[in-house]
Specification:
Strand order of the largest sheet: 1-28-27-26
GO molecular function, one term: RNA binding
Number of domains: 2
Structural class: mainly beta
GO cellular component, one term: SMN complex
Family: Belongs to the WD repeat STRAP family.
Pfam families: WD40 (PF00400)
Mean pLDDT: 94
Distance between the termini: 21 Å
Protein name: Serine-threonine kinase receptor-associated protein
CATH class of the largest domain: Mainly Beta
Strand content: over 45%
CATH architecture of the largest domain: 7 Propeller
């Protein structure tokens, strides 16, 4: 078990009243500051300081659970995906709603392209909608036109941009599909977990070696793929499951990862061996989302108990 009995007292970030659904860190180059965004079933997505956990603002307007909250790389726009059959684009500075994007079912995920020009959404419809943000914002309040539609075979839980052209879609059929938005007829590659369990979490991380690694959590396993070769690097069976919610996040060094899901424990594992290095209890409900900060010094966990907790990667430091 390695160093699994190591304990630490995390920073507790209260404010939410229902289970957390997603966490995202963003490094803002202009302000030289890290932000932490949280999506929650209480309909009130929040923005916090990524280091201290201090509350900055709440984005109010959704009438259903918010499943995803993301900020673009400029730090000027935020987006949310909700159970009220809509996604929204917000002014991240003022918190004002700029654009409402109606859907035909629950929207589970939203993400900005790296150049901030596009927004992709996905959810229960099994359809990825890609919006041209400049065109949408210019034409409001008229109906926002979808620039590209990518049709999947099953509901979508996560979408992640690889670059401004390629996009990953994690689906309920246990597969991750790689699409080129300029060729919407069929995906260019399929990553298959070979077990059919719904993929609950998906992350891309460029590690210290320069390799771009995709992390996926599904069923009772965490998977890691090399995005250049498309080869499966590692596959580990966890002491938890991800059948309802939960996820995994890879440290920027590529040396360890964090996983949380069906119980109250936050676990850290060795990437090369899968050995459990640390195990922390602090939450009072199952873990619903986990993410490392961009500099790797902290990681955040969100729980069914409605709290976010910030943990040190190196507790003795």
């Amino acid at each position: 078990m390695g160093d699994s009995r190591r304990t630490q007292i995390p920073i507790v970030c209260p404010g939410h009243t229902r289970p957390l659904a997603e966490l995202q860190y963003l490094w803002n180059e202009e302000e030289k500051r890290t932000f932490l965004l949280s999506a929650c079933h209480d309909k009130m997505p929040m923005l916090r300081d990524g280091t201290s956990g201090d509350w900055i603002g709440t984005f109010q307007g959704h009438k259903g659970a918010v499943w995803s909250m993301q900020m673009d790389n400029s730090g000027n726009l935020a987006a949310t995906a909700s159970g009220d059959y809509s996604a929204r684009v917000w002014d991240a500075i003022t918190g004002n709603s700029l654009l409402e994007l109606p859907h035909k079912h629950i929207v589970k995920t939203c993400v900005f392209s790296p150049d901030s020009k596009l927004l992709a959404t996905g959810g229960k419809e099994g359809l990825v909608r890609i919006y041209d943000l400049a065109a949408c914002l210019m034409n409001k309040p008229l109906k926002a036109e979808v620039a590209v539609e990518l049709k999947q075979a099953s509901p979508i839980n996560k979408v992640v941009w690889v670059n401004n052209t390629l996009i990953l879609c994690a689906c309920a059929d246990g597969k991750v599909y790689l699409w080129d938005k300029s060729s919407p007829q069929a995906p260019v590659h399929t990553f298959d977990t070979q077990q059919g369990d719904e993929i609950r979490d998906l992350e891309l991380c460029t590690i210290a070696s320069g390799m771009l690694v995709m992390t996926a959590a599904a069923g009772t396993k965490v998977f890691f793929w090399d995005m250049e070769s498309k080869n499966l690097l590692k596959e580990y069976t966890m002491p938890i499951h991800f059948r309802e919610e939960g996820g995994a996040t890879l440290h920027p060094s590529g040396e360890k990862f964090v996983a949380g899901g069906s119980d109250l424990w936050v676990r850290v594992f060795d990437f090369q061996t899968g050995e459990q290095l640390e195990c922390h209890k602090g939450h009072h409900g199952p873990i619903r989302c986990v993410r490392y900060a961009p500099d790797g010094k902290l990681y955040a966990t969100g729980s069914e108990d409605g709290t976010i907790r910030l943990w040190k990667t190196y507790p003795t430091a």
